[in-house]
Amino acid sequence: MGPAKKMPDFITLFNSSSVRKMFATAILSTFSFVSAFSSHANDTNAETHVNTEAGHSTAHNEHAKPEKYDPGKMIIDHIADAHDWHLWGEGHDAVSISLPVIIYTKSQGLVNFSSARFEHGHAAYAGFELNEKGVIVWEDKANTEVIYDISITKNVLAMMLAVITLMWIAIGMARSYVNRAGKAPKGFHNLIEPLILFIRDDVAKASIGHKADKYLPLLLSVFFFIFVNNIFGLIPIFPGGANVTGNIAVTMVLALVIFLTVNLNGNKYYWKHIFLPDVPVWMYVIIIPIEVLGVVLKPFVLMLRLFANITAGHIIILGFFSLIFIFGSMSQGLGYAVSPLSVAFTVFMGLLELLVAFLQAFVFTLLSAIYIGMAVEEHHH
Amino acid sequence: MQLVTPAIGLVFWMLVTFSLLLFILKKFAWKPILESIRNREQTIEDSLSLAEKTKSEMIRLQGENESLLAEARKERDSMLKEAREMRDKIVGDAKATADEEAKKLMNRAQDEIEKQKSAAIAEIKREVSVLSVQIAEKLMHQQLENNAAQQTIIENQLSQLN
Q: Which of residues 121-180 of A touch B (CB under 8 A)?
């Protein structure tokens, strides 16, 4: 908890700009208590897991075929979306929050019910059932009608909780700014204000120039949305742990927002650069397809980068944990022996992921700002 | 494949949530926050420039004060000098006047002395002539008591008339 104790110093020092430059480190140290907490939580989880494993192998031998530990399946289960939010326990002891299922089909219209009706894939309800991947399909395999599944899944709920938290923080902050107008920033402001100033001065103004103010709310929202969801994703217990920013649907929508912002605000220079570039006419055949491809590719890469980085981080952390159970399934003692090493690696990765959580939010915002800057730039030559 | 296939439900909710987030934060958070940050920065900048201006004003005033002080000092010096000169002049004048007066007095005294002297001399001369007449009378008296002598004198005188 050493770095956490340094917080008051950080706050008082805050107004100097040199500290602002180093804020990545500061954020890291400020949030390190989260990682300390998370590693502890992981540790206890590990204990329970091992205990259940032991329980399975001795007391509950009535299971016809003992569950073989499959790390790949476990990891995919953790990073993929789900219709219920698994809290703890395995098999019949599992405790999870059942989430509402909302389905639209042409034939049945809008149907909604609790995911508990599926009994974790063991039962069908209203003609639907969960397949082995957790996707809702028709109970009647012959039915090929498209199912529009707009359920409040684990990722949707996690994202909404993160968004509510973010709104609560940001609006509370705005109110205190208004109430304390003309006074020095205080308390929690000192943590958020450098981020806002950083996005404003070093990202938006540096990339877009004097038109930055128009796009600043979008950039700030994107940055804080990604950052808060990344941080929530690193908290191993409810309401964190969901892989929201590591889900391609989420990053796709974010990239889509940037794509629309860039192309709806692109000025004549931007379009001229794509369709009438300053090259010999015979090269248009090559250049124009490349430029058009670039227009789509830029947001596409934004989408993939965030998705891949966050998912990879979750996979690595889960992978290190899996080591305990892989060794534990060979011999119980080996599992115990490996666990300290595994926990140490996970703590290290957790710290690294804190950096990545900030870095990816920053990179996404910076690249968005650069793309917007390129689209609205005025040429004076 | 499941991982890289965007789920329609999540896309839908993400669109809804993110649009709401964008709208609410833009209106109720970023606008007031950015505005108050800008105001504060403006206030700080204004205060700093005011401080700078005040400082330069102070320096100017200080310089002015110094030059005023120097001027006053110079004036004082010149006044002192003037006073000293005046004093010297007055003293000198007084001395000259006194000298003159003294000389005049002296001259007058000398004149008086001279006058007194000549008066005295004249007096003395008168006295002497009276005395000499008296003496001569006495002498004559004595001489004329002797007839012979008177005879001679008369004869002398008579002879001289011739």
A: 133, 135, 148-153, 155-156, 159-160, 163, 166-167, 170-171, 173-175, 177-178
Instruction: Give the closest residue to A152 by CA, choosing from A107, A94, A112.
Output: A112
Cα R_g (chain A), whole angstroms:
25
ipTM exceeding 0.90?
A: no
Q: Does A197 touch chain B (CB under 8 A)?
A: yes
CA–CA gap between residue A1 and residue A279 (Å, rounded):
60
Number of Cβ within a 10 Å radius of residue B64: 10
Chain A residue numbers with beta carbons less than 8 Å from the beta carbon of B2 are 76, 80, 133, 135
3-state class of A104 per DSSP? strand
**What are B31-56's pLDDT values in tens digits?**
988 988 888 889 899 999 999 999 99
Give CA–CA dist B39/B135, Å, rounded: 138
Distance, CA of B27 to CA of A165 (rounded, Å): 17
Per-residue pLDDT reduced to its tens digit, A289-323? 999 999 999 999 999 999 999 999 999 988 988 88
Half-sphere CA count of A79, side-chain side, radius 13 A: 26
| Domain parsing of chain B, residue ranges | 8-161
Give the residues across from A149 on adjacent strands.
Answer: A103
Whose tokens are 């059932």? That residue is: A129
B86 token code pair: 């005046």
Q: What is the pLDDT of residue A373?
A: 93
pLDDT, one tens digit per residue, over A95-130 is 888 888 888 888 888 888 888 888 777 788 878 888
Residues 76-105, chain A: which have Cβ within 8 Å of B? 76, 79-81, 102
**pLDDT < 70 positions in chain A:** 1-67, 182, 380-381
